[in-house]
Amino acid sequence: MRRGIAVSPGVAIGTAYVIHDIFVNPETKRLEDSEITAELASYETARDRASAELRTLEKKVESQVGRNEASIFAIHQQILRDPAFTNKIRAWICEDRMAADAALHRLLGEYTQLFAKTQDEYLKERLNDVRDVIIRLCGHLVSTNQADLSHLSGPLIVVTNDLLPSQAVALGNIEVAGIVTQVGSQTGHAAIIARSRGIPAVAGIKGVMRTVKTGDTIVVDGRDGHVEVNPPAETLSAFRKLEREFVDLKDKLAENRDHPAVTACGTSLHLHANINGVTDAKAATAMGATGVGLFRTEYLYLTHQDVPDEDEQFQAYCQIIENSPQNHVTIRTLDIGGDKALSYLGKDYHEANPFMGWRSIRISFSHPEFFNTQLRAILRAAAEFPNGNVRIMFPMVTTFEEIRKLRGFVRKAHKDLAARKIKTRDIPVGMMLEVPAAAITIESLLSQVDFVSVGSNDLIQYLMAADRDNPKVNYLCQPLSPAVLRILAQVIDACNRARKPITVCGEMAGQPKTFLLLLGMGLRRFSMSPAFVPSIKQIAGQVSINEAEQILKSAMNFRETAQVTRFMARQIEQLAPSLAMLDI
Q1: Catalytic hit among 189, 226, 272, 328
Q2: Which of 87, 281, 379, 541 has the smallest count of CB within 10 Å of its CB?
Q3: What angle do CA 234, 235, 238 make, to 5 degrees?
Q4: How confident is the model over 538-580, as pLDDT tens digits?
Q5: How far apart are CA 533 and CA 526, in angstroms?
Q6: Is 554 buried (19+), middle (13-18) or exposed (0-12) by CB count in 10 A?
Q7: Structural domains in the chain?
Q8: Whose CA is closest to 9, among 239, 220, 157, 235?
Q9: Quick check: is 495 catalytic?
Q10: Annotated catalytic residue 477
Q11: What pTM does this model have?
């Protein structure tokens, strides 16, 4: 048994599929004489496609972002065409009879060892560039030679270092039952992807890719953060029983998808979904959500082969709105930085503390035309759905001045489209509250926004001065911390008094223990992973507003996080014992 971080609840049993950083396991068998020429041709084709892609990307980034940002792709082309790079790959294919992806994997290992000893930041950056080029090459090899999974039976458990958005897309229609990662946290990429699809997942299992091989039987317990590899028969039987209970519970909860979300005393609630793309939007409808409270537009950029232009974004946003419940969508502008990076904005990302550095709207301010392109696309899409409820939201707002500046950007986008004779309409403009400074001054900020969404994941780490992805300080990043509860209660009260709609769209919204406390604080709008909507709707029907307020009053008397956690666990056990399986 290996213990990690529980990031998506439930139990799953399946066949391990280990994905390395270059998307698939490199082929290890030696090539036959008759295969060498074809393998060389595959490599050359992949290299030509990667080169053409880099040239296109360089031009698009230069036009949309700037010449300096585009220069990184010129460097990548130089690496791609470097004789030493290419000759090694060719030699290993011909002389060592290695498949092209295995040769690239070997080359990456050589470069990694070579640069591991240096303290020179410039040389370390060159390793990242080599890595990017190799990943791009392997992506083109994979696109023409998909990994053969026919020998793997049953549902698959993906095992990887960290499931990146591009890797999730590469999985295509593979039946994924669970996810296990070596790194990550409850708010990392893998966690977000797993929860949005209702897939059990565990993160932070160190060394799992060394001990697990493709084809192993693996158990994922996303409730307690346990992973079992090739367990004995009696252990496997016990987990199969838990797996059936988890599936049965999900099926039973899904039956409430057409029921309104109301408390036991008849108070109506808005249960919205957090989504990354069209698949999630459809899942939100299927799970009974009443809208999309957070569309993370950065996943459009992270999975795009280069830079999405205005028309591409417009089409993507229209698809999202069309497939979302009641055409109700809150679109968050690009939230890049921290653990999410775009290669064409990468030069300024390598900071000592990126989560508190140049990210989100701070990047948007630095690239106004790049930012305006997204705003124009959003406004155009909103105009296509005059009866829909489309809103625009800005991440990581800190000051009053920033909100005024953002309002100016929206006005300019309207004017630009009017000059092109493209119809637009006014849509609500809101802010994501993630920074303690914004929470403290919320009363003054409310005059400049139409609504507020609380990003509790970031708010907690900034409030506690603790990196949520650092396991050494993870004990501080707890949503049930008394400090977190107090600041949330103040923000929710301020918004309600000002009659400004407020939503919590962080992980707190979809967890039964924290949902009850937010309900007691006066919150009536929640946005969560689509898979959590049925369970939250179920527990909402078990409690009245008065009961939630009394629970909150008792919880606020505790001084320690552990005390609050134990108290809330007892409340859930009393109100809805079956939902304990879905609480982490």
Answers
A1: 189
A2: 87
A3: 90
A4: 999 999 999 999 999 999 999 999 999 999 999 999 998 878 7
A5: 9
A6: middle
A7: 2-22+150-250 (3.50.30.10), 33-144 (1.10.274.10), 268-582 (3.20.20.60)
A8: 220
A9: no
A10: no
A11: 0.83
